[in-house]
Amino acid sequence: MARRRGLSTTAIHHGCAEGDDIIPPIYQTAIFKHPNGKQIRGRDLKYSREDNPTVNLLERKMAALESGEDCLAFSSGMAAISTLLLSLTRQGDTIVTSKEVYGASLILMRSLEKFGIRVKCVLNDKLEGEIGSETKLVFVESITNPTLNVPDIKGIAEACRRNGATLVVDNTFATPINFRPIEAGAKYVVHSATKYLGGHNDAIAGVLIGPKEGIDNAWEWRRNLGGSLDPFAAYLVIRGLKTLKLRVEEQNRKAQLIAEFLEQHQKVKKVHYPGLESSPNHERAKELMRGFGGVVSFELENMESAMRFLGGLKLIKTAPSLGGAETLVTHPVSSSHKNISPEERRELGITDGLVRLSVGLEDTEDLIADLEEALAAA
After folding, report:
1. Whole-prediction pTM value?
2. Sheet containing 295-299: which strands, arranged edge to edge?
3. Active-site residues: which are they?
4. Which of 88, 266, 292, 342 is the most exposed place for a label (fewest CB within 10 A)?
């Protein structure tokens, strides 16, 4: 039996054929010479909306990193999610999802109700009880945004297995460095590759990993919906993957130190980070994951305190993303969750003073100094 290579080796070398160039070429072309008129995915190149060698290389790497059979790359994470949902569901089906998933994902799933698809939205800890024989698909995140809750993915996967449902896990926050959902029982994994996979805030992309038959079906949908990834963005994500393990492990380390600092600060009411022993998610995260991620959320006194804190930051910038080299901060109530009712925000644990911090690669001491100065103004 061949020895399985490590994650960094896989990210750098997997999918490259013997004799290939050290750095893969960018096939910046819309069309290919197509003499035989056939159209077999990954073999008969014709048009880059269908297949492209640079994009195919990214797909091979991501399938290996996530322990999946096959992969498709998309123009964004939402393109990956929408294509998968449309390829798997039809009128009369039931989707069970968490209220705690990314807002755009939730809006997308709820929009499917007008096509006769039932969508049941509950909190993470209620998911297993909602999965029944009528359930077609269950959609969860490995670490939720922005309160960083960790669902019982193994338990949910077992409930899906018993009832013949398909489990889809958005693994954007954890990355395959910290967690691989397919190994825990998921059938499909999606990522916004814009975040940690690309890692440099310079490319928008998404990936979908799963069984070959399902991915082949999703390929037909991607071809018709038009959500293909362009080759230059694919190249940027391939480049980002080479340092993924180094970056994620460093962001794990820095986030842990910053979470511990915030937990001791008198201006901070509560810290959400699964790496803290005080977190209700700590034991589950420790069982499932190899690291706790690079995002830390924390609560200040109120909206005014949060605004003063944001205004006091110098090094850390306010921007709606995560996973890059730059440390970024957002205020969910005035950004990602501003269109959610106060009652629903309270149910989700999103307070007016909640701040989400995506830890980058700057020196930890500089980040803590910036946080300390801004907290003094909060």
Report:
1. 0.96
2. 270-272, 295-299, 354-358, 328-330, 317-318
3. 49, 102, 170, 195
4. 266
